[in-house]
Amino acid sequence: MDSRRAESFSDGVFAVAITVLVFNLLPIADDTAATRGIHALTAQHLADHWPAFLAYLVSFLTIGIMWLNHHTMLGQVTKVNRTVLALNLFLLMGVVAIPFPTALVADHLNDSEGGKVAAVTYGLVMMAIAVGYAAMWVYLAAHQRQLGAIRRVRTPRLSTFRFTAGNGGYIIGTLIALVSPVAALIIFGLLAVYYLFEHLPAPGEIEQGEPPPGQDPTL
Amino acid sequence: MDSRRAESFSDGVFAVAITVLVFNLLPIADDTAATRGIHALTAQHLADHWPAFLAYLVSFLTIGIMWLNHHTMLGQVTKVNRTVLALNLFLLMGVVAIPFPTALVADHLNDSEGGKVAAVTYGLVMMAIAVGYAAMWVYLAAHQRQLGAIRRVRTPRLSTFRFTAGNGGYIIGTLIALVSPVAALIIFGLLAVYYLFEHLPAPGEIEQGEPPPGQDPTL
Amino acid sequence: MDSRRAESFSDGVFAVAITVLVFNLLPIADDTAATRGIHALTAQHLADHWPAFLAYLVSFLTIGIMWLNHHTMLGQVTKVNRTVLALNLFLLMGVVAIPFPTALVADHLNDSEGGKVAAVTYGLVMMAIAVGYAAMWVYLAAHQRQLGAIRRVRTPRLSTFRFTAGNGGYIIGTLIALVSPVAALIIFGLLAVYYLFEHLPAPGEIEQGEPPPGQDPTL
Amino acid sequence: MDSRRAESFSDGVFAVAITVLVFNLLPIADDTAATRGIHALTAQHLADHWPAFLAYLVSFLTIGIMWLNHHTMLGQVTKVNRTVLALNLFLLMGVVAIPFPTALVADHLNDSEGGKVAAVTYGLVMMAIAVGYAAMWVYLAAHQRQLGAIRRVRTPRLSTFRFTAGNGGYIIGTLIALVSPVAALIIFGLLAVYYLFEHLPAPGEIEQGEPPPGQDPTL
C-alpha cells in the first residue's frame, strides 16, 4: 500500500484529536450555566479554571509536534505493509486518547490526591506513545529496503540519542508528578517545545555531516 | 465519478469516527468532578472503569481495520456509480454508529442484565456492517467492467471463505454475549486482530497463486 | 482560487458533520447510567428511543446525499471566486447545523407539542439549505465563463424541474409536520432517497439527449 | 517540508473546529429533555436561545474567513520550515479555541455581568489570533526567498493597511463589549464579513496596480 494513504488517514486523525481538546474547555461555560444563580460568569471564575487552560496548551503543542514527527518518520518510506499499518494504529490509539488524561488534569490538577493520579496518568500515556514511535522507527529502519526508503534510514542508535533523551524526559516528568503535578505538566509542555526543534532527522537533513556510505561507525 | 473522491470522503468519516471513541473516556474525568467531595480521583476509580478502556481498545482496532479493508475494496475499481455511493453510505452509517454500542458496553458491561443488552447490540451493529461490506464487494465484482476495475475482481465465493469465516465470528460472539458479555467483547477484539492479517486480497496480492485467466475453477 | 481547495475543505466539513450525528445516540447510554438503580439498560429502553435512531437514519442519508450533490455542483467549474466561497460558507453553515434539529427530533418527537416544534424546525433548516443550493447553482450558471466551467452549465429552468420538485417536498413535509411530526420525518427521509437517484445532472450526464448548441429550447 | 502538507493538516483542523460550533446548539435540545415536565419544547424556548444562534452565526463566518485567509497566506510560499510550522501551530491553537468563547457568549450574553466577561473573552481570543496571523505574515515576507515564494511577498506596511484596520476593529469591539456585549458580538460578525471582501492580497491579485519591481515606494 502506498504510504501516502496511511499518512492522509493519520493526518485526519491528528487533526480531529487536536480539535477535540477544546471539549475540555466547554464545561467551563456549561457548569456556570447549570449553577446560574449560585455564581455568575466572572473573570475570577475563568481564572479559577487555569488548569484547564494550561492542560489545553500543553496537549495542543504535544499533539502538534507528534503530527510533525509522524510525518517526518513516514516520509522516509514510500510503501507500507500490514505491520507498519498495525504499528501506526497502536500509535494513533495513544494520540487519540490524549484528550482523556488532558481532561483528568484539567479537572483535578488542584486536588491533593487527584492531581497526582491525573498527572501520572498523563505521563504514562505519553510514555506509551513514545514507545510506539520508537517501535515504528526501529521497524522502518530494519525493513527500509522492502518499504522503498527514499534514502538509507539509520537504526536508531547514536543518531537518535537526543530523540531518546526526550523520551527519558517523560519518565522524569512522570516521577515528578508524584510530588508536584503542576511541575510535571510544565515539564510535559517543555518537552513538546524541545521536540519542536530537536527531532527525528528529516529525509533531507540527515545527510548533512553524515559519513559517506560504507563508513558509518554507528551501524 | 472518480472513486478517489468517494475514498477521500470516507477517509474523513473513518478518521472522525475513530477519534470520537475518546468521548466515552471523558466522562470518567467528568463524573468524579460532579461528585467531588463524595469520592476523589484515585487510581482505584480509574481501574473501576476498565470496561470503558477495554471497549475503547476493541472499537479502535475494529474501526482501524475496517478503514484498511475499505481501502482495499474500493482500491480495486477506478470509478464509482450512484449504487456504489449508496452502498458506501449505508456502510459508513454503520461505522459512524460504532461509538454508540461502544458507549453501551463502556457504561454497562458490569450490569447483570445491561451487560448482555450492550454486548448483543455491539454484535448486531458489527453484523450489519459485515453485511454492508459483503454487499459492496458482491456489487463491485458483478459490475467490475463498468467500474473500471484495475484487474479482474473475483465474485466472493471460494476466495472469500476466510473473509466470511471472520464474519461468522461476529455471529458466534453475539450468541456468546447472551452468556458472557466480557467474553463476547474479547472475541470482537480478537476478530479485529484476525482481520488485520486475514483479509480481502489487495489488488496486487490476489494475483499470486491464481490460475491463469480462463481457467479459474472458482467462477 | 482553484475549486479543488474549496471542495477538499467542504469534504472535511461534511465528513465531520455526518459523524457528529452519533452524539445524539450517546445519551441513550448515558442517561441510564445517570439513573442506574431506577431502571437498568434493557432492550425495551433501547426500543423506547426509536425516534433517536430514526432521526439518525434520516439525517445521515440527508447529509450524505448533500455531500454528493455538492460535489456534482462544484465539479462543473474549475475556479471559484470570493462570491462562490461566501455562498459555499452559507451552505455549509446549514449543513453543519443539521445535528441540532436532529437532536430536537430525537428528544421530542413523541412530545405532543414539542414534536411539532422539532419537526418544523427540521424542515425549516432543510429549506434554508435548499435555498443555499439553488443560489449557488444559479450563480455558477450565470458566471460559468469566468469560473472556467468544464462545459456549458444551464440556468436551472426546465432541466431543474425535478430538482426543484424535490425542494418542494421539504415545504410539504414542513406543513405536514404541523399535523404529524413522525410522517414529516419519514417524508424527509424519502426525499433523501429521492435525491440519491434524481439529482443535479453531473458534468458528463447532462450531455445525453441534449439539443445541439444554439438550439436549446429551454434557455 | 512541502507547504502542501501543512496546509492539508490545517484544513482538517479548520474543518473540525467549524463543525464543533454546533455543539453549542445541542444543549438547547438537551436541557429541555432534562427538565421535561417543567417546560416542554416550544417555539418560545427556541427563541429564548437567540444568543446561541447569533454566536453560532458569528463564529461560523469568522472561522470560515480565517480558513480562507490562511490559504491565501500559505499559498504564497512553496516550502515551510520549523518556525513556520510553530507559528502555524500557535495560530491553529487560537482557531481551535474559538468554540470556547462562543460557548461563553451563547450561555451568558444576557447576563448582566457575565455577558461582558463572555464578549471580552471573545474579543481577546480574536485579538490573539490576529496577532498570530500578523506574525506569520511578517515572517513569510522576511524569509520569502528560502521558503520558495511564488512571487515577491511584500512586508505588511502600506499594502496591509486595510488588513490592519480590520484587526483594529477587534480592539474596538472588545472595548465596546465592556458596555454592550450584544453590540460587540454584532461588530465581530461584521468584521468577518469585512474580511470576506477586504483581505490579504492573493498571489495573483497583488500584481494589479503594483509599481514595477525596483520602484516600490512602500518598501
What does this structure look like?
- Four copies of one chain form a homotetramer.
- With 219 residues, chain A is mostly helical.
- The first copy, chain A, has one domain (3-25, 50-202).
- Helices cover 67% and strands 0% of the residues of chain A.
- Chain A contains nine helices and no strands.
- Chain A has helices spanning 3-20, 26-34, 43-48, 50-74, 82-97, 99-108, 114-142, 161-177, 181-197.
- Chain A is elongated.
- In chain A, 47% of the residues are buried.
- The model of chain A is unreliable at 202-219 (pLDDT under 50).
- The A-B interface holds A 1, 5, 8-9, 12-13, 15-17, 20, 23-24, 27, 82, 85-86, 89, 92-93, 96-97, 99-100, 103-104, 106-108, 111-114, 117-118, 121 and B 8, 11-12, 14-16, 18-19, 21-23, 25-26, 28-30, 32-33, 36, 40-43, 45-46, 56-57, 60-61, 64-65, 67-68, 71, 196-197, 202.
Produce a short descriptive summary:
Chain A is an all-alpha fold. Helix content of chain A is about 65%, strand content about 0%. Chain A contains nine helices and no strands.
Largest sheet of chain A: none
Please count the beta strands of chain A (DSSP E, at least 2 residues each).
0
State the order of secondary-structure elements of chain A, H for helix, E for strand: HHHHHHHHH
Q: Give the C-alpha Rg of chain A.
A: 20 Å
The best one-word shape of chain A is elongated
Helix-strand makeup class of chain A: mainly alpha
- Tell me the strand percentage band of chain A: under 5%
Helix proportion range of chain A: 55-70%
Poorly predicted segments of chain A: 202-219
